[in-house]
Amino acid sequence: MITLFLALALSGLQEMPVSPEPEAEASSEAAPRPEPQRDPVTGELPVDPYEASNANAGASPFAGTGMRDAFHGQDGIRRVVNRMVDLAVADPRISEVFVAHDLVRLRRTLFEQFCYILNAGCDYTGRDMASSHRDIGLQVDDLNVLVENLQAAMVEEKIGFAAQNRFLSKLAPMKRDVVTR
Ligand code: HEM
Predict the structure, then answer these.
(1) Measuring from atom 37 of ligand 1, which residue has the nearest CA?
(2) Which residues, judged by CB distance below 6 Å to any ligand atom, belong to the binding site of ligand 1?
(3) CATH topology of domain 65-178
(4) Distance between CA atoms of 35 and 16, rounded to whole angstroms?
(5) Ligand 1 test: best mutation among 104, 133, 175, most atoms within 8 Å of CB?
(6) Dihedral sign computed on CA atoms, order 100, 117, 79, 145
(7) What is the pTM of this model?
(8) Considering only CA atoms, which of 168, 175, 174, 172 is closest in space to residue 70?
(9) How many whole angstroms from 133 Cα to the centroid of ligand 1?
């Protein structure tokens, strides 16, 4: 009698519906994208692969050492770039543009670009101006504000006006690649 009861109970158990494993349920949904990780050495976020070239800088370098000296060498160029970025990200007219962008990479690539153009001994390893600004949707007013920030940074660095204007004239033709609206 007990054996019959046990046999019935066991056969009943085998027929009980089995609830799906929690893992199986989770895998049927789209897996969440992993957060991009900053490089532990450079502190930069990864970017899609591209071919690095000085041609990506968007301008040819000045000849000689005059412009390098006017900008007080690599140290002066770094101060100008960092000050320009600080002013831009705090400027209510354009600050929103920089939210969710990698400012560590931006400071490095801008430094390389300026240093390359000023013939101060750098190669530019960033992306070209068209592809790096394509999705930002900048207007000419945004460019004018950034130029204002750059001018303020150059004045603080006590760079002569002739050198400031020579440098700005190298950047001016990039407008066609940077401004997309
Ligand atoms: C002639 C003017 C400009 C130059 C020379 C310039 C230069 C650069 C450089 C070198 C990069 C980095 C490219 C890379 O990551 O490989 C960059 C990216 C960027 N620029 Fe500009 N830029 C200009 C105008 C502007 C303006 C007007 C704004 C906004 C007001 C702006 C916002 C940005 C932002 C948000 C990024 C990051 C893009 C990303 O994360 O993919 N830029 N720019």
Answers:
(1) 101
(2) 94, 97-98, 101-102, 105-106, 109-110, 113, 126-127, 132-133, 136, 138, 142-143, 146, 171, 174, 178
(3) Globin-like (1.10.490)
(4) 41
(5) 133
(6) negative
(7) 0.86
(8) 168
(9) 6
DSSP letter, residue 9: H
Q: Which two tokens stand for residue 100?
A: 């969710």
Encoded tokens for 98: 């920089």
User: In which residue are the tokens 């150059």 written?
Assistant: 154
- pLDDT tens per residue, the chain (181 residues)? 445 444 444 444 444 445 555 554 555 577 888 888 999 999 999 999 999 999 999 999 999 999 999 999 999 999 999 999 999 999 999 999 999 999 999 999 999 999 999 999 999 999 999 999 999 999 999 999 999 999 999 999 999 999 999 999 999 999 999 999 9
15: Cα within 13 Å, side-chain hemisphere: 6
